[in-house]
Write a structure and sequence with these properties.
Layout (H helix, E strand, L loop, with lengths): L8 H9 L5 H19 L2 E4 L1 H16 L11 E5 L26 H8 L3 E6 L33 H8 L5 E6 L5 H7 L2 E4 L19 E6 L2 H11 L16 E4 L12 H16 L3 E4 L5 H26 L6 H9 L5 H22 L4 E5 L15 H4 L4 H7 L3 E8 L5 E7 L5 H14 L1 H4 L7
Helix pairs in contact: 2-3, 5-6, 7-14, 9-10, 9-11, 9-13
Length: about 450
């Protein structure tokens, strides 16, 4: 039973569907890993071992009776603690929602279950997908499996941790300014933020409604492909068999003005990706794009104004029920005027059109997944996402799909990664490109197990 945590989702699901491997045995393997490893990582807020065992036994009984298995047969999954799972508390790592028990599954969760995925529990996250990493919440912050002293990214911290540590094979996460792609990057796995509205947000706690997205974190591009299709309510698409040959990969002009902010090891990952693309027969195209600040500033205005609108009143009414970081972040948007918000909305239409027009010239735009490798958890600046322009927020502001994948290991032993952005409806193209990189150089672009 060793090594199940490195099996591709397609392979594991096929073994369970063919009854060559029982869902119960798979579930016990991952529950044992959780028991052995998660105490030091805090990847799960709410493990549900007995519910997982019950679901696995029921699946095995159905398969024994001749029923056809779903595409995620027996695949162990985590769900970010802001998404409703029937019968479980959806606390979002916050004392303010400690008694909020979900009456039904969020549609994206229901789709994972209908596909015969096995939910192992609620994954840790920053408070209500925004306030973290925090040490004053009902749950300790998640820790990076590559080095438990380091930041795993957020806000879908538990999604990145549970997948990278092999505690499950996939996770349902959310992304408002990079919250799927940052944990994927810092934990060395794959994270897809689909286009706006492609995966339903019903039953998932709102943060900034016009910026919120939901999608998968997984070990590989193909694993993310299957999870994405299920979450989006589609039949899983076949495995990709192509390459980078003939692709056109876009890059921003002058590194989008962030070269001085990018860690040398991250820049090396970007350059390695471009070199690999050229070697594999792709063309690198410098695109005519607005400055990164032009996206970052209005995107941040919209996000902070909407966060304050969603949560400001609750924070003021129940100050002590929220962590310190969430309290101060949630109220920043109170100072944003209606006129500034409307201007940021008008700019969104213009800038999105500019970006979509530029992306029509290429298959994807390639940028860093994060500006630096993971550093110490205790040193994370509470306003890191507001201080400097970051590429992550562009895809949320415009609603375009984006995908993060590994691009090597930094000198400090932590993963680095890149992300690719695409035109509307190109999620599968982005997955194809990431999978082509994995094939071209698996030692650099495929997920590696954390040391130990």
């Amino acid at each position: 039973m060793s090594g199940l945590e490195t099996l591709p989702i397609r392979r594991l699901a096929a073994l369970v569907a063919d009854r060559a491997l029982s869902a119960a045995a798979v579930t016990e393997h991952f529950l044992a890993r959780m028991a052995a490893l998660d105490g030091a990582l805090a990847g799960f807020n709410l493990p549900t071992p007995e519910a997982a065992r019950t679901a696995a036994a029921a699946l095995d009984a159905r398969l024994a009776a001749g029923e056809v298995a779903g595409p995620l047969a027996g695949v162990p999954l985590s769900v970010k603690d802001v998404a409703d799972v029937a019968g479980l508390v959806s606390a979002g790592a916050s004392a303010s929602r400690a008694g909020r028990r979900a009456q039904q599954d969020a549609p994206a969760v229901a789709r994972l279950r209908a596909a015969d995925g096995i939910l192992l529990g609620k994954a840790n996250c920053h408070e209500l997908a925004f306030g973290g990493p925090s040490f004053d919440l009902p749950f300790p912050p998640a820790r990076n499996p590559w080095n438990p002293r380091c930041f795993p990214g957020g806000s879908s911290s538990g999604a990145g941790v549970t997948v990278a540590a092999g505690l499950c094979l996939g996770s349902l996460a959310t992304d408002t300014a990079g919250s799927i792609r940052l944990p994927a990057t810092l934990c060395g796995v794959v994270g897809l933020k689909p286009g706006r509205g492609v995966v339903p947000l019903d039953g998932i706690a709102a943060l900034a409604p016009s910026m919120d997205h939901a999608g998968p974190v997984a070990r590989t591009a193909d694993d993310a492909r299957i999870l994405f299709d299920v979450m989006a309510g589609r039949a899983p698409s076949p495995a990709f068999a192509g390459s980078l040959r003939g692709r056109r990969i876009g890059i921003p002009p002058d590194d989008w003005g962030v070269r001085a902010l990018i860690h040398a090891d991250v820049q090396a990952g970007v350059e390695a990706a471009l070199a690999t693309a050229r070697l594999e027969g792709a063309e690198i195209v410098t695109l005519d794009l607005p400055p990164l600040d032009a996206f970052h500033a209005p995107g941040t205005i919209i996000m902070m104004a909407e966060v304050a609108r969603e949560h400001g009143a609750a924070v003021r009414a129940g100050w002590d029920r929220f962590g310190a970081i969430f309290r101060v972040r949630a109220l920043v948007g109170d100072g944003i005027s209606h006129d500034d918000y409307r201007m940021a909305e008008r700019l969104r239409t213009v800038l999105t059109a500019r970006l979509v027009a530029a992306l029509a010239e290429v298959d994807a735009l390639l940028v860093p997944g994060a500006l630096s490798p993971a550093g110490p958890l205790a040193d994370v600046d509470p306003f890191y996402f507001m201080k400097d322009p970051i590429p992550n927020i562009v895809a949320n502001y415009t609603g375009l799909p984006a995908l993060a994948f590994p691009a090597g290991i930094a000198a400090n032993g932590m993963p680095v990664g890149v992300q690719i952005l695409g035109a509307p409806g190109t999620e599968h193209r982005l997955l194809d490109i990431a999978e082509s990189f994995e094939r071209a150089d698996p030692d650099r672009f495929a997920a590696q197990p954390p040391p130990g």
